Amino acid sequence: MSSVSTFARGLTPSPPEHRQPEQTTAYHQYMHPHRILAGGAGLAALLALTACAAEPTQQLRSGQEYEPASLSEAAALQEVVSATTEFGAESLAEVAQQQNVVLSPASILVALAMLAEGAAGPAADELADLLGASGTERTEAFSALQAAVLTYDGDPALVQEEDLPDTPLLHLANQLVLSDAAAPEEEFLDVLASAYDAGMVTTDFTSAESKQVLDEWVNEHTGGLVEESAVETPDPELVFVLQNAILMAAQWQMQFDPSQTTDRDFTTAAGETVEAEMMQQTLEAAYTEHDDAQVIRLPYTEAFAMDIVLPSGNGTGTEAPMQDWTAQDWTLQDWTAQDWEAVDTAFAGEAETAVDLTLPRVDIETSEVLVSLLQGMGAVETVAGNDLSRIDPAVEISQVAHQAVLTIDEQGTVAAAVTEVAGVTSAPVEPPEAVEMTVDRPYLVRIVHKETNWPLFMAFIADPTAG
């Protein structure tokens, strides 16, 4: 799975007095040699300005070394995880309209956290509410979560191999691309380097080369699952792009036998019946029933798991046959962050259950614009640029775009996502001893880091046969 997010803003031009970068004639990605992609999601943030000088792309290096926080010292860890889950649940409920949607809450919120490092006043207050923490506590929590998942860092190109890696690959990368004329505060650049390990380059957004800078980074850090940035250049008003990418590729702990995959009926969110490729196996897994839905946790070989929520319609579990369920029985608004937290609590204490699972193969990609979503969640002053003064006093967000890819098959999962924002100036039920879970109607997916329950990816599958 992979995702990329981008933010863009506008600012008035000012000279980059504090920088003495090394000039290069071609784009050069700065990242630590250990950093490799395994599967993913990403986020990019853009700023727009009124004019900028025509200089070649330059590589920047903050004087600060990457020094991530640890989970044990992150005081606001649970608040940030809860905020990420809430953002994902509300986003799916808002965006999904009887169609497939996949996004990376982790990617989007890491990007917003980096943006918050440059915010003050009303924007800082709004982002604190959205992110679950502010100041040093916010920085430490996101830095610690990033470092925890990067224990499984790997080469992004591996997602193109025929077989998924035996050990999960989880890559997360950050980059700041600045206009030649942009001059954010040095403290802002330092915290991006020390807490988020963000690479930094400058470019001339009026040149065609700037598009290559953005596209190559997105392509590399999603293993080619997302081919290019959603940000279009040349654009003389762009000031900077803040990019985050998360890419994941992982095998199931218990793989499905391809010979058992057959075509079966699936009732879509639109109420239509389609034939979907259905995988099948009987396995021991964490299972619970909550809020009139069946929930199963499918572990990968290490550290990560996929949670699947199947609404039952009338009754619970096997008491509600498929033909009794309609799209009107259950909506995404019925499943909130509190429901996810109840599931986490149940999975922490319950023994595994024998489950006869039937699950569709999935290969989907989605693209969403999220500016109005952020405004609806209270980030009105942030979008208006009031105030992002540690970046520049005259910036606003004009675009937030999110591209994502998700593949689920017998072997495991590959996912990637990209989000971009552009701007211009101006109590669980005891399950039975054996359970049948046939996923033949719309369902929810969440991929989590098991130690923290940080949601890396969330999806609503309305129709597994639709791309």
Automatic annotation (TrEMBL):
<dbReference type="InterPro" id="IPR042185">
    <property type="entry name" value="Serpin_sf_2"/>
</dbReference>
<dbReference type="GO" id="GO:0004867">
    <property type="term" value="F:serine-type endopeptidase inhibitor activity"/>
</dbReference>
<dbReference type="Pfam" id="PF00079">
    <property type="entry name" value="Serpin"/>
</dbReference>
<dbReference type="InterPro" id="IPR036186">
    <property type="entry name" value="Serpin_sf"/>
</dbReference>
<dbReference type="GO" id="GO:0005615">
    <property type="term" value="C:extracellular space"/>
</dbReference>
<dbReference type="InterPro" id="IPR042178">
    <property type="entry name" value="Serpin_sf_1"/>
</dbReference>
<dbReference type="InterPro" id="IPR023796">
    <property type="entry name" value="Serpin_dom"/>
</dbReference>
<feature type="domain" description="Serpin">
    <location>
        <begin position="89"/>
        <end position="464"/>
    </location>
</feature>
<protein>
    <submittedName>
        <fullName>Serpin family protein</fullName>
    </submittedName>
</protein>
<dbReference type="InterPro" id="IPR000215">
    <property type="entry name" value="Serpin_fam"/>
</dbReference>
<feature type="region of interest" description="Disordered">
    <location>
        <begin position="1"/>
        <end position="22"/>
    </location>
</feature>
<comment type="similarity">
    <text>Belongs to the serpin family.</text>
</comment>
